[in-house]
Design goal:
Layout (H helix, E strand, L loop, with lengths): L7 E5 L7 H11 L3 E6 L2 H9 L7 E4 L5 H15 L4 E4 L14 H29 L2 E6 L2 H5 L7 H21 L4 E8 L13 H9 L9 H12 L10 E4 L7
This protein binds nicotinamide-adenine-dinucleotide.
Nicotinamide-adenine-dinucleotide binds next to helix 1 and helix 4.
Keywords: Oxidoreductase
Family: Belongs to the short-chain dehydrogenases/reductases (SDR) family.
GO molecular function: glucose 1-dehydrogenase [NAD(P)+] activity
Length: 251
Amino acid sequence: MKLLDGKTAIITGAASARGLGKATATLFAEHGAKIAVLDLDLDAAKAAAADLPGEGHIGLACNVTDKWACIDAAAAVLEAFGQADILVNNAGITQPLKLMQIEPENYDAVTDVNLRGTLYMSQAIIPHMRERKTGSIVNISSVSAQRGGGIFGGPHYSAAKAGVLGLTKAMARELAPDGIRSNAVCPGFIATDITGGKLTSDMMDMILEGIPMGRAGEASDVAGCCLFLASSLSAYVTGSEVDVNGGSLIH
Ligand code: NAD
């Protein structure tokens, strides 16, 4: 059964080949959705869109920390598709720093992409969703937000992703009367390129030791959860945080 026939989805940070955004875009496309891949680099976004199953997907350059870039991207999506049913705020960066190593530029970079970007891209598309009285917003947070880090990202990453949880819940409350749902996904450790070669084998052993299921997550594990939250299977779910962590945090 196709769950997203006739739907369109905007997915930020979806150009990274092994990333959660690309896996989510692929699964949504398999379920019949038209996808707008947004990422920093236009060519990479276009290439990722062309690589998705089915026809008619688009790739756009959008730095989510730039409010006007988000507004422009939303307008381009509406021009291309005529509607936007789903937004997945997936763009994110992380840094493996300890508390006292966080410099102002580290704080700004990590908080801006993860938290400010989630706010700006949501603000860019909410007026359209409000007009149509329908929409599903899925924000990618992290288990780091819930357990205070201890995976890879530093305290500034935990704080930014905890901010995403608060924003998700506040949006859910405010947008529910307009038929728009807002939920968060909290992945545990998923093997992608976000660690930028900085994941040591000691770190990996420590992480695996803390996962009852005994394996790192896969991007498709997160994509499945995003599909549930984006589709009408979750019609009465809003303001929730859904764990995809192999049991690494059971609470
Ligand atoms: P990734 O590095 O593979 O992909 C992230 C993408 O975001 C990249 O394509 C990058 O170009 C894009 N991006 C970065 N800054 C951007 C900006 N300012 N505007 C637009 N796009 C931007 O990482 P991933 O592991 O796929 O991570 C996806 C999301 O999942 C992130 O929000 C991350 O924090 C979150 N997450 C990942 C894990 C994990 O273990 N991989 C765990 C929990 C949460």
